[in-house]
Design brief:
single chain, four-stranded mixed sheet, 13 strands, globular
Length: 444
Amino acid sequence: MRKILRFSSAVLAISAGFLGSTSISWALDPQAEASLKLQEQDLSRIAATESQPVQAAMQSLKIRKLRPVSVTDNLVPRGFQDGDDYSSLPFLLDADELQKLGMKAARPEIPEIGWHAQMALKRESPVYKVHIHAIRTANDNGTHAATISPQEIKRYVDQANRVWWSSGIEFVFDPDKDFEHRDSTLLNYDCTLDDYWENFRDPDWSPTRTDGTKYDEERMRVGNEYKGKLVVFFRYGNGFQFDEEKNVWKHTPGTGGFSSSTKSFVAMPRMYAEMNLLAHEIGHYMHLPHPFAGDIESVQEAAQEIRNWVEVQGHATQNALLVFDGDNIERYSGLPADVKDTPPDARGAIFVSAYGEGANCKASYPIVQIPVLFSGDYQTVYTLRPDRLNIMSYFKHCYALGTQHLSGDQIAIARNALINGNRMHLLQPSFERRPAMQKAVQQQ
């Protein structure tokens, strides 16, 4: 079996004071470690604030059982759907909606933080320019229209270029030439609403959504019309929120975006939201999955996942953190590529469980220790240290930590998709999908 995890003497050690206990953690690659140190220097010179509104939003969602859209789409590889990414919620709700949820408006963005750290990283060459074409949508009759402006889209693209700087992939967007508006329900929604959705009264069970395929197929068709461009739709989407006062579900806009290695487009929310969202979704388009696996709520839940991974599924104890490694091909065999240089990641809730509100975005809490008691009273303490500056994680709203980045493997995968893969048309507009590739997409 190919060795996945790299351990150093400082990483794999016998814990003193506990007989038969080991401590295991993940070693970051040198480039990522250097970037993290530079980001920490930035933090020492600014009075950065934490993204508490985002954490409050996620907590409110759990309390009120708001359900993300789950698009029916066989073309979405595992981990590429961001329907449960609530980091944009404080940016998308109006003041009344925020007050009802007990939330505050999102804090101002701080895109400059850590920017010199990105510039210090090696930049791949040659630099490839990818042109973006934005399509803002509304329904056939003009209702539920997206409201984002061309200038706001330019802000998204500018931030994506900061994040992707070291990749040698540069995104180009002209607000005057690369923007259009279309009235099309198939482009604006993600799925068909159940005819009886207004009759749903159970707060624990949201209305069903069906027939998402035809909406995606239309976006695929339109996306393929623009050879040589990456098409981004800004749409209303579909979501549901339970109104406790009226005891009914309300149809609301979608809060997340999505794309995948097989799609001809990126889908985004209707208005300008979390500033790193486009950079993240472009990552999915460029074949990059999430680095995390699952949605762990607590240290205890993480320990149970590890026990199951080792004792039920038969994996080695030293590789137990792979259970949280969402972009490792040994963990998920269906991934389009294997990312070996991003550490395991269990998302942010486990930090909140261990240290309190807002800890997921604080530089002072870089790790979470997970003690696991295996059968036979053998205990191992695992140290989880996700790269919270990786753009494909769900820590991308933690602006106080610094500018997000890509790992070396992620850069290699994205560039390969652009140079040799199904994104070649972005550089060569006459490129057509190979028959074998078309067949593979149809079979997924």
